[in-house]
Amino acid sequence: MRSMPYIILGLITVLTFSYFTSTDSKLNTNILPATTLEGTISNSHTTGLATETENEIIRILLVPGHDKKSVGGQYLNLTEEKINLTLSKELMQLFKNDTEFDIVVTRDENGYSDFLNTYIDDNKLSIESFYKEKQEAIEQLVERGLFEWPDGPHHASASSEMVLRLYGINKWANENDVDIILNLHFNDDPERRSHHDRGKYEGFAIYVPNTQYDNSIASKSLANKIFEKLHTYYPISNLPQEKSGIVESHKLIAIGSYNTLNIPSVVIEYGYLYEPQFDNEITREASIQHLALQTYLGVHEFFENYNVESANRQKERKVFDELLREDNNLVYGLRTNKSVFTLQALLAYLGQYPPQEYTKRQCVLDGDFGKCTESAIKEFQKEYSLVIDGSVGSETKVKLREALSENN
Fold it and tell me: Which CATH superfamily does the domain covering 308-406 fall into?
């Protein structure tokens, strides 16, 4: 049974629907589905509100962005297409043992999934008709002053083949009982001129549909849950258009441009390809695993599945426990070290990282034991009356374990 917050959101959606349909019901039947209050509460695909009911399987569509024809951003030999796919695999692994979830992915290392290729090949004309009708309906609303095109962030244009595929994904999702869509991406500096250069931007952002679209309310709720998890550890993107962290867009096809999605959808830009934590395979693997886990936990909280969320918090803490049982000391100067990455994540989890004189942007989780990590350890040692040497030996590990237990 849906909890009270979702019932309230359903009422809001009905009120919004009533406003549009009272103006011109014939015009708006092309845009907003005819519904009743009862239908709004019971049918998640009418309002875009995810539901969780007893014995109901929750279907999640994972869309790792780009493909081998259009690889997206690139830094040195690392492409966005490849890292998106790696993150998708980590998420699938996390969801694998959750019997209440059905995970569908649009592509793997062999290319697009057979179901999607078949659907698009068999329905090209209906897909084109689908999004063109939606576009025309929105444009009519704009002309009548019932819909506004707000100034929004700039997005790279897609090829006609990719446009068809993206709208095809939306249409397929609407027709196949998908509850939420996670579009997985990494960012790139639009002003960067060479694959060998780093850009000037860093941090994560989550894109959600424009407020005027059907799936806006639930998409923002989903984004908020994932945002809370990621922001514990990572800075918000400093690209000017993304400074709010959760960014509205009416143009992104993946989240329902022209109101083409009835269900919650978000585009998660997890960071910039050239950021130091993605530089080498060791810290990249640790970072992607961590990003996937935070996304996974956020999804569980969105569906208010606190029992499973709690169990997987234990999974996260198990990683911390394994670190604290290691015999080796962690000291200043270690670089691209997975144990140091986990230490930084643990300190952030405890609210100790970044240290007071630094920001998340200055102190990323990168596996390097430098000034940020040393300062954070010194602050921790001072708080717990330990010898302040900035290194992590047996006594500091004991206190870190105690702090972790207190944080349960």
Answer: PGBD-like superfamily/PGBD (1.10.101.10)
